[in-house]
Amino acid sequence: MHHGNHFYGHAHVLAEYCGLDPSRPPRIDGYLQHGWNVVDGLGAGTPYAPGLPIFVWSERTRRRAWSMGRPEATVIGAPFLYLVESIPGTAGLTEVRDGTLWYPFHGWEGQHVTGDHQRLIDEITATEPGPITFCLYWQEFQNARIRAAYERAGRVICHGYRGYMRERTDERFLHKQLAELRRHKRVASNRLSSAVFYGVAAGCKPAVYGDPMYLHGENEPTAARIRREWPELHGVAPDPEHARATAMDELGAGRLASPAELRAVLGWKNVTTEERAAA
Amino acid sequence: MIQMIGGEMPEFTEQRPPAGGPVHRHLAGRLPAHTRILVAGPHDDALVDALAENREVTCLLRSQPDAEALAARGVRVLCGSLAKLTETERFDTVIAFDGTGRLCTPEGPQLDWPESVRALKRTLRPGGTLLLTVENELGVHRLVDPGSPTVARDGEWRPLGEFATAPGRPDRLAAALGAEGLPVAGLAAVWPLPGQPTLLVTPETLRYGPLDALAASAASAVATAYTAREVLSDPRRLTAAAVRRGVGAEFAPAWLAVAHLAPRPAQALVLPPVLAAPGPETITEVAGSPDGVWLRRVIRGDASLNGPLPTGRLLEELLLGAAVDHDLPGLRRLLARWMTVLPQAIAENVVVDGDTFAPLDPSAPDRPDALTRFAHTLLTGGYTHPWPGVTDVSRMIAVLAGAAGLAETPPETPAAPGPDVRRDHAEQLAALRRRLADAEARNLFFETELEKRDAELGRAKTQIAAFSGSLGYRAAKAGLVIARKARNRLRNSTSGSTDKGQSP
Lengths: 279, 504
Hints:
- The structure holds two protein chains of two kinds.
- Chain A is an alpha/beta fold.
- Chain A has two domains: 3-87 and 252-278, no CATH class; 100-251, Rossmann fold, CATH 3.40.50.
- Chain A has helices at residues 10-17, 59-67, 79-86, 117-127, 138-141, 144-151, 173-181, 194-201, 220-229, 240-251, 259-266, 273-278; strands spanning 31-32, 54-56, 73-75, 100-103, 132-135, 155-157, 186-189, 205-208.
- In chain A, the strands form two sheets. In chain A, strands 6-5-4-7-8 form a five-stranded parallel β-sheet, sandwiched between helices.
- In chain A, strand 4 (100-103), helix 4 and strand 5 (132-135) form a beta-alpha-beta unit.
- In chain A, helix 1 packs across helix 3 and helix 8 (194-201) packs across helix 10 (240-251).
- The longest helix of chain A is centred in the last third of the chain and has 12 residues, at 240-251.
- Chain B is α/β, with parallel strands linked by helices.
- Chain B has three domains: 2-149 and 167-308, Rossmann fold; 313-418, no CATH class; 470-504.
- Chain B has helices spanning 22-29, 45-52, 64-72, 113-122, 140-143, 170-179, 203-208, 211-225, 235-244, 248-251, 315-324, 328-341, 370-380, 393-404, 422-468, 471-495, and strands at residues 2-6, 36-40, 56-61, 76-80, 91-96, 124-135, 184-191, 199-201, 230-231, 254-260, 274-279, 282-288, 294-300, 307-308, 313-314, 350-353, 356-359, 420-421.
- In chain B, strand 11 (274-279) and strand 12 (282-288) form a beta hairpin.
């Protein structure tokens, strides 16, 4: 359906979870929520074919979508959680975690943040107790000036390109993100965003602080609303247990579908017994 | 033998079925032997035969053809109106399981409910027993009936419906009979239909008894009676909700009263807390034991029903409740446990108490299509559920099978026969309209997308042609370049400016 279903390799992750070829995810009968937001799960301006279901992360988002006139929402949970489920961590046995994975807030293609990167970097280095890894969005990663500023303060990485119109999609985007998150003790950003929630799911303690770096023409009341609604995730060191409970709810923990259920829900053909035997 | 008492209806036969059924037959069998019985109103032959085994039976019928047919079977019949019944004959028991609605005729006075009771009372011997059914005008059977009770049809020339004078609550019924000198010794709410009950429960049991299990039993009784019947809304859900919420007696289709004319007889008919006929040949009683367990005892029929009454709520209602509440984890837990423990029992026959899943009726046959039946219910019963995008049954079966953790998706089977619910029809119509509007809007959406793609394809084709170097295209391209140059030259000469910033 919509090419947004392929962003970050979401469709690929779900196909793999369902036992299908992850390099060729079948068409999804609806729209996947591809990032955490405070609207109906879909990005603003998504061209939306009427009557098709949207697949959202959490029950809260489903209820909100209903209030926004989109009653055909089904909760399936975040694709990232399916990945966390299928790639078990080492559960603290040999796991070596250190430092903070910091996600400076970014816009998407065509959006540009305002704000002083250097001032943010100074605040981060003054706050973080351990080594810092900065994960830049590909746009900023390719900007030599911005990248150099971050490289002076720590390690700089990029998980890849989320893809556009099903092209140049980094199908291993979330795999790389999970692997990196599992190497860190903390996850932080200047905005509450998907990456912070993913970090919590990967076992990091979250933090949200620093200059929020508004986008050009951004609706600032929404940003303020996010701070008001989720205070437990904001600050330099929020209470990890409280933060985790909220974050896992937002990702739809406890509501993930089994592979068979997910296949049927997404409109994917079930693997028959014969096909399984042939495989 | 037939005796014309006056007021008979020579040209009329009863249209609606007579009162009867296994529970009535069972009660009749409990009446003392060698007594005189008056059966007032239309009752089925099996009941009359059961009574007549070792008792002296007289029937009162208003329809002459019906009376003649019964008399031809060797039964003593009084044919005519209740108003004409004299006191010269007295009976040990008067049975009016059909109520008082079909006892008067167009001839003579039209007795209302209290007058009918008085007329019946006059035929009782001292110490005699009256078994009387009183229809509840606010019973679930009325609430779901698409027909109006106040329309004259089926032999009702005086259809009073809710305007009639019968008491409207079991306690008022007891008080009214008491005031007529007929103190009530036993009272029970009746399901699924006034004249054909298969479940009797006393009002005390409906207040203090195992309400969840009783709700399940009542819904089950109603389900059987309403198969393929047209109704306004689903009587199973209304019945279960009423019983579970403690107003089962108030919303039951009818009440059965056992009343005595003083003095109280030594051998009185006692109504158990619960009397049920889960099948045509099975009679069970349920009674509380001192340790708080409700025990089911088989009086007749399948002995597998003996034992404690399973406690808890009906699985079907729990599943539907979880679905409308969008409680996915709860719904999956229920489905998974059901398909592990009792995969062949339909959701209408499973009672759930925590992790314990027990069949309400262990004698019910196995149903391999249990899950697919529930898929139909979820899709067609007007229930919100967590998968609004799933609108066809085969996909819903796959979703439920996946949610239940089944390795294989069961094959699609037709929907189970159930009540034909008008409210569901309205919902389905609204849903279809929505889907049609969505599909039309989607058509438009795809058309616009297609136009966009067509334009892109056109541009791409032009580019490909440019690079493929066909002769015709190169000639056209050369012409275009010459034309542009000529235009630019012309512009420069007229304006005198250089237009450097503009692209060609």
